[in-house]
Amino acid sequence: MGIEVLAPDVLMPIRQRFLSMLEDYTIQISILHEDAEDPAELAEAMADIGSIAHRVAGVAATLGYEPLGVVASRLDQQLVAGRQRGSCTLEENDHLIRLFRAAINNALDESAT
């Protein structure tokens, strides 16, 4: 019988940086969510939330956070579609934004254990 050698997790430094970014994103999303309540800031706040969702969607699954990636991708697509049709309100996106924040928190909680 041979000795089993575990390969080092080459993605660990990238995963740790991603998790650190997620912590920052939770704060940013909360602020942007409040900003979106002001009609004068709605479009920019929603675009910024979409940008965060797009970045997360692009890397989450690769780093082992597939549920987060799925929610981020759905939010990104929904916000892009809303901007394309000229109607991107907080009310129609609020539920998915909240799911996105919850998915971020779940990923952070999972990584802490």
Low-confidence stretches at least 5 residues in length (pLDDT < 50)? none
* Biggest sheet architecture: none
Calculate Rg over CA atoms: 17 Å
CATH topology: Four Helix Bundle (Hemerythrin (Met), subunit A)
Q: CA-to-CA gap between the ends? A: 32 Å
How many domains, as an integer?
1
CATH class: Mainly Alpha
Under the CATH scheme, the architecture is: Up-down Bundle
Q: Give the total of beta strands.
A: 0
Would you summarize the structure shown here?
75% of the residues lie in helices and 0% in strands. It has 113 residues and is mostly helical.
Salient structural properties:
113 residues, mainly alpha, Four Helix Bundle (Hemerythrin (Met), subunit A), 75% helix, 0% strand, elongated
Description:
It is a single chain. This protein is 75% helix and 0% strand. It has helices spanning 12-35, 42-59, 66-85, 90-112. It starts with 11 loop residues before the first helix and ends with a helix. It has a single domain (12-112), classed as Four Helix Bundle (Hemerythrin (Met), subunit A) (Up-down Bundle), CATH 1.20.120. It has 113 residues and is mainly alpha-helical. α1 packs antiparallel against α2 (42-59) and α3 packs antiparallel against α4 (90-112). It is built from four helices and no strands. The chain is elongated.
